[in-house]
Design brief:
single chain, 303 residues, alpha/beta, 7-stranded mixed sheet, two-stranded antiparallel sheet, 18% strand
Length: 303
Amino acid sequence: MTSGERDAAASAPERVDPWTIRRVLTWATQDFAARGLASPGLEAELLLAHALAVPRIRLIADNQRVLSPPELQSLRALIQRRRSGEPSAYILGRREFYGLDFQVDSRVLIPRPDTETLIEVALRRTASQSLFAQVLDLCTGSGCVAIALGHARTTWRIIAADISNDALDVARNNALRLGEAHHVAFVHSDLFAALSDQRFDVITCNPPYIGSAEISALPVDVRDFEPRLALDGGDDGLQLIRKIVPQARRHLNPGGLLAMEVGAGQAPAVSDLFAENGFAAIELQRDYGGHQRVVSATTPQEP
C-alpha cells in the first residue's frame, strides 16, 4: 500500500454495521442477561415485536431487516423501562394465562403459570358439576381465574370479587374482550362482606400470601411495581387466609369446593386450618415447579 492509500484509509469513516433485527436482538439479549433477567432472549423478542407491532415469528423471517430510526427510538424507550425494573407484562400491557390473552397493568397482579394449577384443581374436582355450578372467585385481580373457569365451563355462573375497584375495572375489561361477560359478574367486596348470605358450589381464591417482612426481598419488578395490596399477607402471610377459610365454610353449599393458592411452604398450615373449620377430602396439589401450591377441600354433604 502506498503512502497515499494509507492516508486515504486512515481518513475514511469507520464502517458501522446497520442495526438489523438480528443485531438488535443479540445486543438486547446480552444486555438483559448481564442485568440478571431470567429469560433475556424471550424478553428481548417480546419487546422488539411490540415495538415493531409484528408477531414474534416475523423477527425470524425478517431478521436481516434494518430498523428505521423511529423504530430504534421506540425500542430504546421500552428497553429503558425494562432496565428500570418495570415488568415486561406491564410494558406490553398483556400476559397469556391458561391459553387466554389478558390485559394487565400496574393495577393488578400479573397472572403467573403457577396459578394455572388452581384452575386445574377446580375443574378436576368439579367434573361431576361440569354442566352447572354457582362459583365465587375471591381476590380476582385481573379476573384471570374467574374468566378462565368461565371459558372452560361455559354454563357456570361466576361472581368475581375484589376489594380494589381499580382491579375490577381491569377484570371487567378482560371479560368483555374475551367474550365472558355474559356469565361472569363482578362485585366490589372486602372478602365476603358484600355477598350477604349467598352460597356457592365452588369458591376459588388466590389471596395475598407474602409475609410483610419478605416483601422488601422480592425482585424489584415485583416489589416496586406490582400492587402491594395483592401481595402482602400480613406477618406470616396467612392473615387473609385465616379470615377466608371459616367464612368460605359458611358460604359453600353442602359438598361445595374451596380451592386456594398458597405460598411455598404454607400448604401444611393451611391444610390444618381447613381441617379445623370442618372441611373434608383435603388435597394438596403441586405446581409446575414442584411446590405445594393449591390446597383444596370440600364441605361435608348433608345427611
